[in-house]
């Protein structure tokens, strides 16, 4: 089958070539991939940035979210049958969405929403699970709270704005002037043009911040949170608490405790809670997200769809940082 893979961690583009068709175990389903979403995480995995956090074997087929059709099921699979249309974020250590077929654990799969296309569905799992695990699971956002989301026109931002509004929050975000109307249409109540305005000087009294940018922006975000507020970062630095949760070794726990010391110190001084989020696969949560899409409470945003054989061009386009929503490849 055609696949986009690496044989070692590398900065240069991966290889578009042939790999063996996967086999499934008793708890997996074999999915014929119809479309797959591109994520910056793929580039970070490819370069080896997370090699201490996630153990991968080579050759490694990249790709963290997909939509497709079930073609075979393991003997213990009960929720899906051949022919079902599904979407999934395969668990760490078992990624591989950039291929014509993939074996995915049943627990990582969700029904594809009936009211969107395969291409739209392919861009949902990773960004929507990130938003869900940040805003619902970690922050427990409540009606009337104030939530600030960095980079509102990006993949995570477009879903996080909608989810925060669905939860009843007042939502602020950052974007460029060209995208102000776009993020307001998604539900943002207040929008900061990051090229002309400093969010830390305009916003105050926030309950939750979702950060996806650098550490300088992360530290500046503490200024807008009220005492008891919650700072969540998907871009780091990771913490010792995360390392324990991920069952990483003692040495890595100490390393993460050290590299997160600055943000933890600032948060302690300001009586804030800091969490690092490395999103994980969760089919049950993804099923709830699928239901919200079918009910019209969430609408995935797809910027551009490329043919699979143009995946290198698709990554080049995504890397320029101008996409509104997700970039997807279609098979």
Automatic annotation (TrEMBL):
<dbReference type="GO" id="GO:0016491">
    <property type="term" value="F:oxidoreductase activity"/>
</dbReference>
<keyword id="KW-0560">Oxidoreductase</keyword>
<dbReference type="InterPro" id="IPR013154">
    <property type="entry name" value="ADH-like_N"/>
</dbReference>
<feature type="domain" description="Enoyl reductase (ER)">
    <location>
        <begin position="14"/>
        <end position="329"/>
    </location>
</feature>
<dbReference type="InterPro" id="IPR011032">
    <property type="entry name" value="GroES-like_sf"/>
</dbReference>
<dbReference type="InterPro" id="IPR036291">
    <property type="entry name" value="NAD(P)-bd_dom_sf"/>
</dbReference>
<dbReference type="Pfam" id="PF13602">
    <property type="entry name" value="ADH_zinc_N_2"/>
</dbReference>
<dbReference type="InterPro" id="IPR020843">
    <property type="entry name" value="ER"/>
</dbReference>
<dbReference type="Pfam" id="PF08240">
    <property type="entry name" value="ADH_N"/>
</dbReference>
<dbReference type="InterPro" id="IPR050700">
    <property type="entry name" value="YIM1/Zinc_Alcohol_DH_Fams"/>
</dbReference>
<protein>
    <submittedName>
        <fullName>NADP-dependent oxidoreductase</fullName>
        <ecNumber>1.-.-.-</ecNumber>
    </submittedName>
</protein>
